[in-house]
Amino acid sequence: MRAKRLFPSDRLVHRAVDLVLSFAVPRSAACIGALMDAATKDEMVQRSGICSLGHLAKHGGVAWRGATNTAVNRILRALQQHKGSAALQASGLWALGRLAERLEAPGGGMQDAAQRAKQLHPDSALVQRHADELIAFLLRP
User: How crowded is residue 122: how many other Cβ atoms within 10 Å of its Cβ?
Assistant: First the structure.
């Protein structure tokens, strides 16, 4: 990504970066997902995977082709599995927000997850903030 900023008008550089990202991002997301699938009951593994997927979302667009739905579903599963963890709920809502905003991920299930987290963690300012931001993004015109 830095190469694109250093060479803003060089189309070959942009294509090369996109090619590398289209190779690396889906494979990284798949490896993260495999770890999440192998340890669904381990809160720390799930939270780490969620944060990693959220950070990977900065490489939006073509790099995520075909991997977005799976990432969203894994995050939603973790949110459902670990309802009692405010930290995981906040991380999950943040990651869903990044996927929705940067990758135009399908919002199915996101609003319900945000509402559920708000109800389960009324004293967590972080959960409330990320839930409100996600819901506002999903409801925008």
Answer: 9
